[in-house]
Amino acid sequence: MASKCSGCGPGYKSPLDAMKGPREEIVYLPCIYRNTGVRKPDYLATVDVDPKSPTYCKVIHRLPMPNMNDELHHSGWNACSSCYDDASKKRSRLILPSLISSRIYVIDVDTDPRAPRLHKTVEPVEMYWKCGLANPHTSHCLGSGQVMISTLGDPSGNGKGGFVLLDGETFEVLCNWELPGEAAPFGYDFWYQPRHNVMISTEWGAPKILANGFNPADLKDGHYGQCIHVWDWTTHKHVQTLDLGEEGAIPLEIRFLHDPAAAEGYVGCALQGTVFRFYKTPKGDWAAERVIKVPSKKVEGWILPEMPTFICFASGLITDIIISLDDRFLYFSNWLHGDIRQYDITDRRNPRMVGQIFLGGSIQNDGPVKVLDDKELDSQPSPRIVKGKRIPGSPQMLQLSLDGKRLYVTTSLYSAWDKQFYPELIKQGSVMMRIDVDTVKGGLKLNEDFLVDFGKEPDGPVLAHEIRYPGGDCTSDIWL
């Protein structure tokens, strides 16, 4: 039995305690070369975000992976606040799954946090043979000390939303978390809430379909998802499927409220720019309702004119959402329109937009897309220039400081889609920006003194993706 004591393990006692944690000084970001033309391995970058440091806004370390074309994507921890009372646990390993190669890298961030090193590589054959799964995505640590990773598919590239369990000490692949034959048709993200004995997962699409870009015909053929799945946390049984319909097509990031007693949360649905609230009903089952819809814009000159839903009406494509640790604000990125939005979610069923900022995107006023009808804007947004650089691509991955006052953003979604929708992003590399947040009344302001330009990397422009703090953050820690 692991020794127990109050507060001897990693993380924080509660989300509100986490808000009082130390300010972030460094962050980790996976940097991707797949689809860029640069024949180099992906790497984990360490970036200095301490304004008092002489290396502020600089990449201070790069850890290359031992293989090519992995497509590093999201990451998680071997232990987080779910192990807060377990003195035997320590947040010392960053779990770094590869979306395309299906490798899982385990990174030692404890020996020298500013210069991480490779601890172990879990080869894909382990996942293939032991679990019948591939294309790992979201990694969460469990209170048991194990690590759980969701998957998009099977070894043949078909959709299969299952879950891989790793031993939290050896990182050996153990088995499937889900029961035999109960994997979802598609997979992507997940979040669990033990006090309500529930885990909920989302859907993207079949890996062999989305691997090389987006084809609208694949939507008609059923290769992308529109459901979220409810699982019994104790028995691992798949108990409910919530079909969100066409408005909920491609539900990606899912976030429960951070309060572990809360029985509700939000999921961002990419294709039609909607956010659904999911919640536990008085009967004890789960339901979902749309609470936000970003109006599409009537346009001409769109990058994919053959798209049935995009021919005349360009969706925002919500790609990342995040909730502040006090459960007051929700943020999301519209990767095609080019804006980030902040909503006050104090009234859970009626989010109220209190902040918006445009940072690139497809509808800039000097670009090829002409907006013919817009229900929100009077004019097309101007390009954004930070420290002399015009922002390529569009805001995508988000990470909020523990105190909620700084919102970091990167501009790469996924290399194949970057190449298709923002070819200049492939040539110039992505950037990391910082937005200063008004946490009293709401509001977003670009910090003009902060920019990390991944177009200037030693081996050529690279695509930086998800942001992680060494001490945990809003999207990796779960409280029991």
TrEMBL record:
Q: What is its main location?
A: nucleus
Q: Which reaction does it catalyse?
A: methanethiol + O2 + H2O = hydrogen sulfide + formaldehyde + H2O2 + H(+)
Give the source's domain of life in one word.
Eukaryota
Q: How does it sit in the membrane?
A: Peripheral membrane protein
Output the Pfam families linked to this UniProt entry: SBP56 (PF05694)
Q: Where in the cell is it found?
A: Nucleus; Cytoplasm, Cytosol; Membrane
Q: Name one GO biological process term.
A: protein transport
**GO cellular component terms attached to this protein's record:** cytosol; membrane; nucleus
Entry keywords, A to Z: Acetylation, Cytoplasm, Membrane, Nucleus, Oxidoreductase, Protein transport, Selenium, Transport
Q: In which pathway does it act?
A: Organosulfur degradation
What is this enzyme's class at the first EC digit? Answer: oxidoreductase
Q: Under the GO molecular function aspect, what terms does this record hold? A: methanethiol oxidase activity; selenium binding
- The protein's role, per its UniProt record: Catalyzes the oxidation of methanethiol, an organosulfur compound known to be produced in substantial amounts by gut bacteria. Selenium-binding protein which may be involved in the sensing of reactive xenobiotics in the cytoplasm. May be involved in intra-Golgi protein transport.
- For this entry, the protein name equals Methanethiol oxidase
Q: What is the lineage of its organism?
A: Eukaryota, Metazoa, Chordata, Craniata, Vertebrata
The encoding gene: SELENBP1
